[in-house]
């Protein structure tokens, strides 16, 4: 016998071990009768004492009957309101699933927009050379394609210098030095390389040290400015250009201030 409880050790109602006690607790679960007692309606005596309104028991399903009782009949018919707004309607309690690829694309797009607002991408000189931004395709290096450019250049020089028959050297030379020669028909009259002498073509590209010419037979010639002398004609006037004086880019030459110097010999 257990002196504290007064029960014998062999009594089945007395748990002999913690495991047996836990099993007994697990078995002692609420029954359906206890659950039904919790959800049972209040007795009439309690509802009368509290002054609660007693709703009549619905004859059909509980939810439609409850909703129809909550609708004000003066505003709308309860049955029509239930059939138009509640009946056969589905309410999704979960967010609609989205594809992982769509989420990733949206995330990358928003990140790109944020980066574009903060910083604008610019190409440096090496990127431009690598991409060939200023390169002219070989199939487009045709003499006939640049003849309209040469005509535009002639009109540009006439507007720049005025009447070619009354040109003042002190005024015309600085203008010629800063002029844009794209479209000019240049001829090499002197050079340290004899193979360049006599080459004539339309200038379609100018770099710091080179003139890119396309000849009448659609050949591209790269003539170095250094140690070369060029000439071009405008109406009846012939102008001479020393390549050593033009050793700069066209954009830099247009903004540069030059000083008068003696003519260099090759």
Automatic annotation (TrEMBL):
GO biological process: rRNA processing; tRNA 5'-leader removal
PANTHER family for the chain: RIBONUCLEASE P PROTEIN SUBUNIT P29, RIBONUCLEASE P SUBUNIT P29
Region (Disordered): 1-59
Biased composition (Polar residues): 26-38
GO (cellular component) term, any one: ribonuclease P complex
Family indicated by similarity: Belongs to the eukaryotic/archaeal RNase P protein component 1 family.
Protein name: Uncharacterized protein
Localization in the cell: Nucleus
Entry-linked Pfam families: RNase_P-MRP_p29
GO MF terms, alphabetically ordered: ribonuclease P RNA binding
């Amino acid at each position: 016998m257990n002196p504290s409880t007064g029960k014998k050790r062999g009594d089945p109602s007395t748990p002999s071990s913690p495991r047996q006690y836990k099993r007994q607790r697990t078995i002692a679960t609420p029954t359906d009768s206890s659950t039904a007692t919790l959800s049972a309606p209040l007795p009439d005596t309690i509802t009368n004492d509290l002054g609660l309104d007693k709703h009549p028991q619905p004859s059909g399903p509980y939810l439609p009957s409850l909703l129809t009782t909550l609708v004000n009949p003066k505003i709308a018919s309860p049955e029509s309101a239930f059939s138009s707004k509640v009946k056969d309607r589905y309410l999704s309690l979960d967010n609609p699933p989205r594809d992982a690829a769509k989420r990733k694309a949206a995330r990358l797009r928003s990140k790109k927009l944020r980066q574009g607002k903060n910083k604008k991408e610019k190409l440096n000189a090496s990127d431009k050379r690598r991409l060939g931004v200023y390169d002219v395709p070989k199939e487009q290096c045709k003499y006939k394609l640049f003849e309209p450019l040469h005509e535009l250049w002639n009109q540009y020089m006439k507007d720049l210098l005025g009447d070619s028959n009354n040109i003042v050297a002190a005024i015309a030379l600085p203008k010629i030095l800063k002029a844009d020669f794209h479209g000019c028909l240049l001829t090499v009259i002197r050079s340290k390389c004899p193979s360049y002498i006599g080459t004539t073509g339309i200038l379609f590209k100018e770099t710091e040290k080179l003139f890119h010419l396309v000849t009448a037979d659609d050949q591209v010639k790269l003539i170095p400015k250094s140690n070369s002398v060029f000439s071009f004609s405008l109406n009846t006037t012939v102008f001479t250009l020393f390549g050593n004086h033009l050793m700069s880019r066209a954009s830099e030459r247009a903004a540069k201030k030059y000083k008068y110097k003696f003519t260099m010999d090759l």
